[in-house]
Write a structure and sequence with these properties.
- With 306 residues, the protein is α/β, with parallel strands linked by helices.
- It has 2 domains: 175 residues, 3-Layer(aba) Sandwich (Rossmann fold); 126 residues, N-(1-d-carboxylethyl)-l-norvaline Dehydrogenase, domain 2.
- Helices cover 46% and strands 17% of the residues.
- The strands form 2 sheets. Strands 5-2-1-6-7-8-11-12 form an 8-stranded mixed β-sheet. Strands 4-3-10-9 form a 4-stranded mixed β-sheet.
- Helix 6 packs across helix 9, helix 6 packs parallel to helix 10 and helix 8 crosses helix 11.
- Bound molecules: nicotinamide-adenine-dinucleotide.
- InterPro entries: 6-PGluconate_DH-like_C_sf, 6PGD_dom2, ApbA, KPA_reductase, KPR-Related, KPR_N, NAD(P)-bd_dom_sf.
- It comes from Croceibacterium xixiisoli.
- One of its GO terms (biological process) is pantothenate biosynthetic process.
- Pathway: Cofactor biosynthesis; (R)-pantothenate biosynthesis; (R)-pantoate from 3-methyl-2-oxobutanoate: step 2/2.
């Protein structure tokens, strides 16, 4: 299978490495020329608990892709998706499948602007990954992924992709309940990430204070109400449980939104709290705490560009 990884950052490199280990023909596509040059010069350096690998995976700019591939895996930030897919139009043929394992809601719709809906797959990853230098990625945690056709597509291709990732070291399943998985993760992120980013603290700090614990509970309950009103039948308790595990077992973990704010980068708040807010409005619901956190992070993001 010929696979283009669109966005060869922290997650793109991690997943590209798994497809490569499983024997797929992988191309890492990115716009960061220095990162591309480093990968092509010495290989992709991937550090995991098992050790450090140097993987000879070619890296290209989008304009260097001139023929259709079998699969495009989108791993840009959510607000970069549309432009990134537009930049590799030559690689998206009539049989090309698109997959997003990005965070947030609405990735299915963004991908369906660039391929027929039956060729769009979505999912979620619980693998952690960090870009630690040009051509260098570190992933020290455990995790896996779940994916499935986003709309009415056949599951066969999703199963093949999941099997490849599992063979390459990332346990992955094709899960028909994929929208429940994606909503649950988005709601968890909506509850935890903005509070970490606004306080500049990790989940352990949030656990120590009634104010944060109350807000986390409320955002989860608001999000679950919106999901159910949108036809995605999930329960709140498993997400409450996950927030508790995050605040206790992963007390010192730096949420990606906290890392973004500290580094002066734009956050993915639009695809997380913003998307839940949009769905709430469509369903005629009010989600005041989710909305306030969304507005606070929008202000934070505005500081970057003004
Ligand atoms: P990242 O910023 O490390 O990587 C994004 C890459 O996309 C960058 O290398 C960037 O240069 C590239 N890019 C930007 N515009 C592009 C374009 N037009 N064409 C090609 N490439 C382009 O981000 P990440 O941490 O890998 O996150 C990617 C997605 O995965 C996000 O939605 C994130 O929420 C999700 N995610 C991340 C983690 C994690 O631990 N890092 C875990 C789960 C999910």
């Amino acid at each position: 299978m010929k696979i283009a990884i669109l966005g060869a950052g922290a997650m793109g490199c991690l997943y590209g490495a798994a497809f490569h280990r499983a024997g797929a023909e992988v191309l890492l596509i990115d716009v960061d020329q220095a990162h591309i040059d480093a990968i092509n010069a010495g290989g992709l350096e991937l550090e995991t608990r098992a050790g450090t690998e140097m993987l000879p995976i070619p890296a290209l700019r989008p304009d260097q892709l001139d023929a259709p591939v079998d699969l495009v895996v989108v791993f840009t930030k959510t607000f970069q998706t549309d432009r990134a897919l537009g930049g590799i139009a030559a690689a998206i043929g009539p049989d090309t499948q698109l997959l997003s394992l990005q965070n947030g809601l609405g990735n299915d719709r963004r991908l369906a602007e660039h391929a027929a809906p039956e060729r769009v797959m979505v999912g979620a990853s619980t693998m952690p990954s960090d870009l630690i230098g040009l051509g260098k990625v570190r992933s020290h945690g455990e995790g896996g992924s779940r994916l499935f056709p986003a709309f009415e597509g056949e599951a066969d291709f999703a199963v093949r992709v999941a099997d490849l990732l599992t063979a390459g070291g990332i346990p992955t399943t094709a899960d028909p309940a994929i929208h429940q998985v994606i909503w649950s993760k988005a709601i968890f992120n909506a509850a935890m990430n903005p509070l970490c980013a606004l306080t500049l603290r990790t989940p352990g700090f949030l656990f120590l204070h009634d104010e944060s614990r109350d807000m986390i509970r409320t955002v989860v309950d608001e999000g679950v109400g919106v999901a159910r009103a949108s036809g995605v039948m999930i329960e709140a308790q498993p997400i409450h449980d996950l927030t508790h595990v995050s605040m206790t077992d992963h007390a010192n973990h730096e949420a990606s939104m906290l890392q973004d704010v500290k580094a002066g980068r734009r956050t993915e708040i639009d695809a997380i709290n913003g998307a839940i807010l949009d769905a709430a409005h469509a369903a005629g619901l009010s989600v005041p705490v989710t909305e306030t956190l969304y507005r606070m992070l929008r202000l934070q993001d505005a500081k970057i560009s003004t």
